[in-house]
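Thread: Newbie trying to understand structure tokens

Hi all, I'm a second-year student working on a class project, and my supervisor (Dr. K.) asked me to get a predicted structure for one chain before our next meeting. I've only ever worked with sequences, so writing a 3D structure as a token string is new to me. If someone could post the tokens and maybe explain what I'm looking at, I'd be very grateful. Here's the chain:
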Amino acid sequence: MEQVVITFLCMAILLYFLLGGADFGAGIIELFTSTKNRSKTRKTMYQAIGPVWEANHMWLIIAIVILFVGFPHIYTTMSVYLHIPLAIMLIGIIARGTAFVFRHYDAVKDDMQWFYNRIFRYSSFVTALFLGIIAGSLISGHIDTQANDFYTAYISGWLNWFSVAVGMFTVSLCGFLAAIYLIGETKEAHDKRRFIKKAEFMNVAAVVFGAMVFIAAQRDKIPLTDWVFKSNVGLSAIILASLSLVLLWYLLIKGKTKVLRILAGFQVTMILLAISYAHFPNFIRLKNGDAISLLETAGPEKTIYSLGLALLLGSVLILPFLGYLFYKFQKKEE
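---
Reply by user tm_fold:
Sure, no problem. This is what the structure looks like when written as tokens:
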């Protein structure tokens, strides 16, 4: 049952990045859109994520619950030593969600719409940035559980070149996902071209910040290159990600947009697999060279069994209805 719980944890993190990350990316795309086109971008974005945007946070909640119940040592380490970036990320999620609702459903249309729009855009950027910073911090080896001063314990673990580079890489990936997803949501050729340009921009940004991640990893002596290129799975994942990107742009040039979302999601999945496979099941790398493993820090057997059973039953009850929700709103748009 332990393997079942870990599988659900990995899937929840992946789906949150692919779906919730695309939601954050929509705000990032709006941030980098010219003033004259922002209104149309907002309308397209709302049609795409409006009906289901709140459901995407379900994956984050599932991941947090799994860590809290099944892997309390990992949950405690994260919530103590990464409490600052976690708090900023959660504030960003709240601010973004509040602004998203008020700018569409506020009974009075006044100057506050200006405020709501900016809160939505900037909080989307900040949330994606700190999501990446947290992810980078977990594998960076900068977290020092033996620190005896505030800065070393609670700042340097996440405020470093590698974690920030991963944060910016995450921002660009979220923007890329959103741009690709939004291409299929518009019928007008002009709007398609705008989102294609945004996808190209975010794609270039992902390459630049991806290179910065490797440079920062080399500087901080993080074996990222070994994880990716000296593992058969990691190397295969990178090759598949590259091939899927080439195919994605080929189909985009040909005007075939139906499978673009699948290809974009597949590419990002392969990138995450390449980075994480080599050091799995280690979830957190510490400054003293130790690692906190999912397999070695799992809760009591009865707890893991009950958690796994609850996840299996919940997936049977919830996932079909979630799929139906996506299906109905997609059919409604068509």
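A couple of things are worth pointing out once you decode it. The radius of gyration is 20 Å. The mean pLDDT is 87. Feel free to ask follow-ups in this thread.
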